[in-house]
Design brief:
Largest sheet: 8 strands, mixed
Number of helices: 16
Shape: globular
Radius of gyration: 22 Å
Helix content: 40-55%
Strand content: 15-25%
Distance between the termini: 15 Å
Oligomer: single chain
Strand order of the largest sheet: 3-4-2-1-5-6-8-7
CATH architecture of the largest domain: 3-Layer(aba) Sandwich
Order of helices and strands: EHEHEEHEHEHEEHHHEHEHEHEHEHHHH
Length: 387
């Protein structure tokens, strides 16, 4: 069995911490028997997605993971006493390894540079490649790329996840939302609307520039015609909730309900995705969790310079092969500053085909070795060669 040091810099939002926390817990699963230390430079962000974590405590253990504060600023970086490295150091998203830690690593150690998830073709060629090192005294370093094909590092998925989702979907709406009512602090009126069989439920977790008001304006007009109840559930950090609330105040006579959530654990977050009819997600962690949820979802990639994020979006759409109207919806949603948005993908016929295609992809991906398994196997193979 191996020991893993995972390093995480929280650059923006919750994705970095979210992916690293899931990976750490997965590697530390008792059935694997690995020792895992997770080094995080911002424990406050991690505590938002795992309420059991104390952001003021620099060393704590949760779910078999040894969580440690990673000092990256000021005198703390100079005087900090680093422990002996485990056999494998995982540098997530090119965050770098601390110099004082890295100099303790020898030739028998290995260094994995774990990149962001992408469906782009170049990932297959780059995955597993050796990275440059100055001498053979340094640990061997490798590029590790998560992805959707057999030639990549796979996807982050804990044991029994798909089985648990299947069991959740067998429950009625009432049963699902009754279990979520307390952790989500749902008002009685909101819960009453959520459990109605014909209510359409939308989950919104987007970056600030997302055209959420256009979505609500469109569905407001639809609701006026169909009289169908709708609930919009906003994640805790969504400033668009205020804009939506103001819009509905100015446009009364509707059956649209807005809910703003508190910060919740990843386990509860996942169950929200499993329970809603449509999920609007962002970044990497929630994107993958929306895929496993097997519900129609719109992905908003993290905006990058020179529109690089649109290349990631195109690669994903090429991989999943959704109905044409859904592809159009994705493109227009992510470039809403350029054009109006065709919401035709939300009609029942297309959304059912959309959902079916997602289920087909998940069925294929369940046979692909997970990211956790592939990292562990890769580490075993490379450390054996280094000895």
């Amino acid at each position: 069995m191996f020991g893993f040091d995972i390093f995480c810099r929280v650059i923006d939002y919750f994705g970095d911490a979210g992916v690293c926390w899931r990976l750490a817990q997965s590697l530390a699963d008792p059935s694997y028997g690995h020792s895992v230390r997770l080094w995080v430079d911002n424990l406050h962000t991690l505590a938002r997605i795992e309420p059991k974590i104390n952001p003021r405590k620099k060393h704590q253990v949760h779910n078999h993971v040894d969580i440690k504060f990673w000092p990256t600023k000021g005198d703390n970086t100079i005087h900090f006493s680093w422990p002996n490295p485990y056999q494998v150091a995982i540098e997530t998203f090119s965050c770098g390894l601390p110099n004082a830690f890295a100099v303790q690593m020898k030739g028998a150690h290995i260094h994995i540079n774990l990149d962001h998830l992408s469906a782009e073709k170049w990932v297959e060629y780059a995955h597993g490649l050796s990275l440059f090192r100055h001498s053979f005294k340094e640990p061997a370093a490798y590029y590790f790329a998560p992805g959707f094909s057999q030639n990549t590092g796979g996807l982050l998925r804990e044991k029994n996840l798909l089985k648990n989702i299947q069991q959740w979907h067998r429950q009625s709406k009432s049963q699902q939302w009754a279990q979520l009512a307390t952790p989500l602090k749902l008002h009685r009126q909101h819960l009453k609307e959520l459990v109605k069989e014909k209510t359409r439920i939308f989950f919104l977790f987007q970056y600030e520039h997302a055209p959420i008001q256009k979505l609500i304006s469109y569905l407001h007009a639809q609701q006026t015609l169909t009289k169908q109840n709708m609930v919009f559930i906003f994640a805790a950090d969504q400033v668009n909730y205020i804009h939506a609330k103001n819009f509905l105040k100015q446009n009364p006579n509707h059956s649209i309900h807005l809910v703003q959530l508190p910060y919740v654990s990843q386990k509860i977050f996942d169950k929200i995705l499993w329970s809603c009819d449509f999920n609007f997600v962002r970044g990497e962690d929630s994107f993958l969790r929306a895929l496993w949820a097997q519900k129609p979802f719109i992905w908003q990639p993290y905006p990058q310079a020179q529109q690089q994020h649109l290349l990631k979006l195109k690669a994903w759409l090429d991989t999943v092969k959704l109905p044409a109207a859904v592809n159009t919806f994705h493109w227009q949603w992510n470039q809403s500053y350029k054009q109006t948005i065709d919401f035709n993908a939300l009609n029942p016929v297309i959304s059912n085909a959309w959902k079916k295609r997602i289920k087909q992809l998940v069925h294929r991906l369940q046979y692909q070795p997970t990211l956790t398994c592939q990292i562990a196997q890769f580490a075993k193979m490379k450390t054996a060669k280094a000895l």
